[in-house]
Structure formats: structure tokens, C-alpha cells
Amino acid sequence: MRCNVNVQISYRLQVGFLYLSVAEDYFTGLVNLHCKGWKSVYCDPVRHAFLGASTTNLNDVLVQSTRWSSGLVEVALSRFCPLIYGPKKMSALQTMCYGELAFFPFYFFPLWCFAIIPQLCLLNGIAVYPEASNWFFIVFSFVFLSSLSKHIQEVLSTGGSMRSWINEQRMWMIRSVTCYLYGSLDAIMKRLGMKEANFMTTNKVIDVEQTKLYQMGKIDFQTSIMLLAPLVILTIINVVSFVGGVTRAMVTGKFSDMFIQVFLSLFIVTMGYPVIEGMILRKDKGRIPPSVTILSVLVSTIFLSLGSLVLSVLLK
Predict the structure, then answer these.
(1) d(CA 277, CA 297)
(2) In what helix (H) or strand (E) does residue 307 lie, and over which residues does it extend?
(3) Which of 42, 151, 204, 243 fits a 20 to 30 Å CA distance from 210?
């Protein structure tokens, strides 16, 4: 019996899914397929070959994405890191693709920086980007616009709409400041032995009210405060930054110097409109709880006050 079990385990390690990570599909593709010589073939038939049920509310999206992020970072920090394990077994491009996915959750760091540092400097009249008349302004604009244009092209070419593009942008930004952050921290803490491994399941029960909100195109904000608070805090910071920055620019006449920072705050506020709507306008069950809004206002006020104090000390 023991021998039979060993044979089964050996067989599964050769041809089956590898469940050594919660990102089992990614891990299996890396270790059991592409690193063993398998080649991928793009298949996109007119009739969809695979159909599945996607998450339809914010809580399930964030829980699921946090689990995936943790699994990807676990692989990135293990001996199976694609940049170490892959080069001798896969092509350079394949290795880079797997590496990009493994380290994708670390997007949380630059996204958090983009969401708070330029805004804090804007409120204090500090320019961190070239002014609109500077030649380097074109470089920054090109990088930003080309990235958005490429995403729009991908969405439209696959049958999506501009509304789909906006929703994808919003969800990417939401995941970046919540799921990617918590997933990365979870994987790092497990690696350091500060936390035991666990498995967060995604809710599969269909809620009628949540389904109605989804069909209406509204986000259901019924989720934990740990996942919701960062969204509200960053939205408040950017609203305050935009209003304060535009006012300062009009008074001082330095709108050209602050144009990129003002535009960045406006872009984040625009993408975060559902959060503003959930805080102020909505009265349904899926709105943002007033307690979360009040807490986020307090945290935002403390952050902006302390940040302004630190900047004033550093610039003396």
C-alpha cells in the first residue's frame, strides 16, 4: 500500500497539478510543463472552449486576488523563482514572462508611491515632474499615454468597450493598493516563519442583492475594513490634493510647474469615482459604511499633516 502511494505521488509530480503553491496553475505550468520542454500554442476558437463563473462583488475579487498574489510571491521567493530556475530550462522570453508574473504583486510599491508622494508635494507647492514647457514633459506624457493606448487597443481588439477598459483600469488600481500589498506581505511573513500557511477560499454562494448591484454596474463595498480602508484613504488624499493643488496653482500662477501632478490626482480621482459615490451619494446596502469613511478621513488628515511637517523640515 505504501509503495502504491509513492507511485501515485511520483506520477502526479510528473503529469498532474502541483499543489505546493496556492497559485497551482502557474506553478504547474512553470515546473511541470514549460521547464520540461512543453510548448504553448495559442488557441482562440470562435466557440469558447472553456467557460467559468467569475467573481461579481468586490469582496470576492479582493480575497481571490490576495490569495493569488500570495501564491505568486511565494514562488518568486522560493528555489523555483523563474529568474533562477528557468533560464537553463526555458527560453529567455519564456523566463521573462514567468518572472513578470511572479513579481507582478510588487506593483503595490510604485502604485502606493504614485498615489501619495506627488500629491503630498503638490499640496506643499513642490514640483516633482518637469513643467509643461520642458522637453522632458513629452517623455513622461509619452510613457503614460502609450501605456493607456496599448491597454485600450487590447481591450477593443478582444471585443471589449471603453467602459470595459475603464473598469479594468479601476480594478487594476484597486488590486494594486490592496491585494498585491497584502498578498506580498503574507508571502514574505510565511517565508520568514512569522505566519503559518493557510488557504483563503472564495465565496461561491450567489447573493441576489449583490447580483443586482453587479448588473447595474455598481461596486458592492461590503468587505473587510482592512481591504476597504486603503481605497478610501487614497481617494480622499487625491481629492484633497487635486482641489488644493489647483487652488495653489491658480493663486501662484505656477500651473505649468504642477500640471503633471494635478493631472495625476485628477486621473486617480476619476478612476476612483465609484469610491466617492460609495462614500457620499449611495444609500444602498453596498455603500461604504460611514465608520470606514470617518476613519479614513482621520487617517488621511494625520498623514497629510505629518507629511507636510516632514517636507517643511527637510526643505529648510
Answers:
(1) 15
(2) helix 290-314
(3) 151
Cβ-based burial of 288 (10 A; exposed 0-12, middle 13-18, buried ≥19): buried
Entry pTM: 0.86
Distance of CA 157 to the CA centre of its chain: 23
Residue pLDDT, tens place only, 122-177: 999 898 998 888 888 999 899 999 999 999 999 999 889 999 999 999 999 999 99
DSSP state of 241: H
199-209 residue pLDDT tens? 555 555 566 67
Cα angle 195, 81, 44; round to 5? 110
Q: How does DSSP classify residue 202?
A: P
**Confidence bin at 15 (pLDDT 50/70/90):** low
What CA–CA distance (Å, rounded) separates 148 from 142? 10
> From CA 245, how far away is CA 265, in angstroms rounded?
9
